[in-house]
Each structure stands twice: as structure tokens, then as C-alpha cells.
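Objective 1b: paired records.
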Amino acid sequence: KTLLKNNKLDLTKIKFFIGYSGWEKDQLNNELTEKSWLTATATRNIVFNTSSDIVWKESLKHLGGKYEMMINFPIDPQLN
């Protein structure tokens, strides 16, 4: 907070996200093991140069292959 208040941070190199997610003990690890989540390596471009409304699509592009086709899927699969 002090760095922000004193203009000591380059605002093009930092992003803040506000929210909350919670899991039971081992729940997230189990979900990752079950492949319930898609994970992609973060890139500087995706994190800092991509609008938050298209980060998902850019991450799918980064994964490539079968994941890239998911770019056009609706967010809610029930709408498909």
C-alpha cells in the first residue's frame, strides 16, 4: 500500500484482483488431479496486456490444439 500511495510502482507492471474462492482440505488438489480445471502457463502478455474479458480466450489460444476450438464455446455450456 505504501508503494502505491507514494507512486513507487509502475502501474503497467501490476494488477489487482478482488474476490474470494474457497475449497475444503485437498478439494482443489483433487479437482486438479481429476482434470476438472484447465491450467495454462501465465505469460506477461496475457497477464498485463490482455483485457480481463478476453483472458480466458487468450489462455485457450495459448494452450492450442483441442483447447483452442473452445474459444467459441459459450461460457455456460447449457446455452450451447
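Objective 1b, second protein:
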Amino acid sequence: MSEKLLLLPILIPALSALLIPAINFPDKKARNIFIECSVLLNSIVIALLVIYPPANTLTLFRFSERASFSLRLDGLGMVFAVLIALLWPLTTLYAFEYMSHEHREPSFFGWFVLTYGVVAGIALSSNLLTLYLFYELMTFMTLPLVMHSQKRESIRATISYLLYSLTGAAMALGGFFFFQVYGVSMEFTPGGVLDMARITAEHSEGMLRTVTFLTLVGFGAKAGLVPLHAWLPTAHPVAPTPASAVLSGLITKAGVIAMFRVVYYVVGDDFLRGTWVQTALICMALLTIFTGSMMAYIEPHLKKRIAWSSVSQVSYVVFAMMLLTPDGIRGAVLQIAAHAMAKSCLFLSAGVVIYFTFQGANYHYADQLRGVGKELPITMTCFALASVSLIGLPVTGGFTAKWYMAAGALGLGNFGLFGIVILMVSALLTAGYLLPIVTDAFFPGDDYDYSSVVPFKLLPLKMIIPLLLLSAGTILTGIFGGSIIEFVNTRIIPVLL
């Protein structure tokens, strides 16, 4: 397949987003069909690129001898690209119903589709400069999604999101300039691109490790890594639920993918193994895992609770990645896939609960969801399946991912055992803040007024289909986890370690 086709996953959403306000659609249904077909077409193109990956790199233009805007699809990019191609059409389909009672629908869908192409660009980036440009562009494409309601709280959340994102991006940009000076190339290369002879001669190891640490923390802002995490539980609750789903399920993964690229494709794992950078990042990841879980446990607001859960669960990937072992890489990739499915499902389920408010109850809060499983049984069943995956119970993708993380952590001795303890504590806290919602929804107790239950009403298929497929995905990533591991073993690990 020609490498020029790598441009299509970026151009199709961009062109579609421009046409949404330009075309005079006869009605909303016609507009929605156009949007969904555009998104599906883009996903099909991505699938074809994954099945028949171009052998060469597409270089569009060069800024200098070593700095270029280039696209390529490798094993890690394929993982992220497949997730994007699966989740975006489902979330878009869901959004048609959810956003039907919102104002400024064309604006929302325009930015939503445009963001698809930008996030795909991160998966297709061939070097750090290209990734950084798409990373920055992603921030500005998602700002209108967070600020969609234009209420005071959404504007405040948008400002917070922007400040944290720009702070992290500035830290990452500083790293780019150092890596350009001390690297033999800027193309993502397994094992890293650093010129170790020059670094050793100039005694620059300590400086570059500090730069690497700051770069990783900067990219970690999108992943919700402490201390640049506060935007996430602020932005998610005010954004429309479809936007929250992609922010948590995919946008946070873009930060993790950027960190993964720096560790394994820019500086190389050997440059970090056994150093204070590895130790510091693992400690920060464990602190974030515990902090996110604890805050979710005490948070009563439903979407905020799920957002704090994302802070915790995404840092599982950072922890596994920084183990710098084959099992760590396996656990990280599995967690990326499992969490994307589960967290998107949780947010979309919460959106249904908020969308269909019965009996005047305040469905924005977790402690007021008693009996909602009687009114929305399919929704809460999907919510339950996603919850058990996040907890890490057997058969789910979350269980398989955490199993490999624990296996990788054992190689670090006592420090690794401490990490496993934190993972177990986090799993217990996750059960503590998710399972009570499920049990109260289906088993509200003898004192519950069953006469107040609204007769079951079938939800629109545009909402039901995404929920069913995403909840099934949380189980299938566990059942077919072996296939994912086989892909990691053949397409990622051999070129990295």
C-alpha cells in the first residue's frame, strides 16, 4: 500500500468537519448520516492501513536536515489507531441522540470530527516533532468540546485544561530541542536515537536524564499524572458526555503514547534503566494511582468519580511502561486497550443515566442512583461489566493487563512488591467506588418504593448499540488477550528490547 494513503486518516475528518457547516442539509437526519459515514470511512481507511501497512515513511516537508513532518505506522501506532477507529464511530453514533437536546450541535460535531483526524495523526507520527505538533493541535481542537455549554463552570474548566496542557507541552518542547542536539536522528527508532559517544564525552548524562524526566512529566499532563492532573476531574464533568468518553478513553492515551515514544523510541530504555528517572516516574505513577482511587472513593458526583478513576487507571500504564521489562510492555498495551473500552463505556452509561432522569431524582450523584437498574437494566449491566474490568476481575481485559503488570513488577524486588501492593489497594478502592453503584441500582433494598419505578422503556438504538459493543469489548479484551499479547510479542517487543 502506498505511503501517501497515510494522509487520509487526517484529511478525511478535516474535510468532513469543514463540510458540516457548509452543506445545506435538508434535515438533521441527513447531517447525522453524513457525519457517521465520514467517521466510518475514516475508520475503514485506518483498518486497511493496519492490515496492509505501508513499508515506507511519508515525509511531507522538512524544517531542517533532521526535523521533518513525517508519517509512518508501526506496531505501537497500530494499537492506538485501532482503538481510535473502534471507539470514535461508536461515540459519534451515541452523540447523535445525546446531543439532540443540546444547543449548537453542528459546532460540536464539527470539532468532534476534526479531533478524530488530529488524534489519528498522533498514532501515525513518525518522529517527535510531528507527534508534538499533533499533540499541541489536539489541545486546541478539544477546547471547544470542554467549553461547549459555555456556562461559567465550563469556561473555568476550559481555562484549567488549557493551562495544564500548555504547561506540559512547554516542558515537552524543551526536551525536543535537547534531543535534537544530542540525537543522531529525530525519527522514532527502537532503542533510542541518542548519540551516546558525544553524551559520554561531554559528561551530559545527568543533564539529559533531567531533561527526559521533565519531558515525560510534561507529556504526562494529558495522561493525568500527578502533579499535572487537576484538569481531568474538572473538565470531564462539564463536557458533554460523548466528549468526556473520548477525553478519558483516547485523549489521555495520547499522553501515554507520547511518553512511550520518548522512553523507548527517543532516549531508549537502556539510558533510563536503574536510574533515578525510572524510580521517580514509577513513584509518581503509584502516587497517582493511589490518589486517583482515593479521590474517586470519596467523590459523590458521578462523572467526577469516573474522572478521578481515569486519573488512577491511566497511570497504571505509566507504571507498567516504566518497569522497562517485556511483561511491563505487555501490561501497558493491554491496559491501554482495556481502559479505553471500559472508561468509554462508563461515561456513556453515566450519560444515559443523566439523559433519562426519572421521578425528579438527581441522577448526577452516585448516592441517588438507588433502583436505577430497574429502570435502565441494559445501561447498568453495561456499567457493571465495565466496572469489573476496571477492578481487574478475571476474564476481563483489566485483569489480564494487571496480571502482566504484577509479573513485570516482581523483577524490581522489594520496590516492585510495594508497587503490587499499591495496585491491590487501588483495586479494592475501585471496587469500593464502583460496585456500590451497581448493587444499589439493582438491589435498592426492602425500604425502596418499588411502586415509583418507571416502567421499562427501550432506549434509542443509537445509545444501546455503543454501550453493548463497548461492554462486550471489556470482556473480549480479556478473552482474546492472548491475541493482543501475540501482537505485542511479534510487532512491538522484539524491536524494543
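The mean pLDDT is 90. The CA atoms of residues 155 and 487 lie 42 Å apart.
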